[in-house]
Design brief:
Blueprint lengths: L6 E3 L10 E3 L7 E5 L6 H10 L2 E4 L10 E6 L6 H7 L4 E3 L18 E3 L6 E3 L1
């Protein structure tokens, strides 16, 4: 059983959405990094502060219902909408706003963008 904590993630400069409160659970322990090149520093920071498990989504995968938050680096239309469509809290390091064929799934309750380290606050 994990001893999880919560963080509040707000939109950064030029960003959109949120704020999101992220609290991993035993059912959803993964801080899923889908940025390429390993665990992104934003994902590592969220995992460190919450006690979540950092996970490289490019090397392997876990079911959507096991993900506490997905950290992405998408400025386009694919990953930016896939995780919100699956009801996964999504943190985009790019200042993206809803666009593309999945835009209707990208809501401020599920998505925040333009996130930098100082946009993550322990609560």
């Amino acid at each position: 059983m994990g001893d999880y904590k919560s963080v509040r993630v707000e939109a950064g400069k030029g960003g959109w959405g949120g704020p999101l409160v992220i609290t991993p659970t035993d059912e959803k322990p993964y801080v899923y990094s889908v940025t390429g090149g390993g665990i992104h520093p934003i994902a590592a920071r969220i995992a460190e502060l919450t006690g979540g498990i950092p996970f490289d989504g490019f090397k392997s995968s876990v079911p959507f219902d096991k993900i506490a938050v997905a950290v992405i680096d998408c400025g386009g239309t694919a990953r930016v909408g896939v995780y919100p469509m699956k009801k996964v809290l999504t943190v985009d390091i790019h200042g993206t706003s809803p666009a593309g064929p999945l835009a209707n799934f990208i809501t401020k309750e599920l998505f925040v963008s333009g996130v930098k380290a100082d946009n993550i606050v322990e609560i």
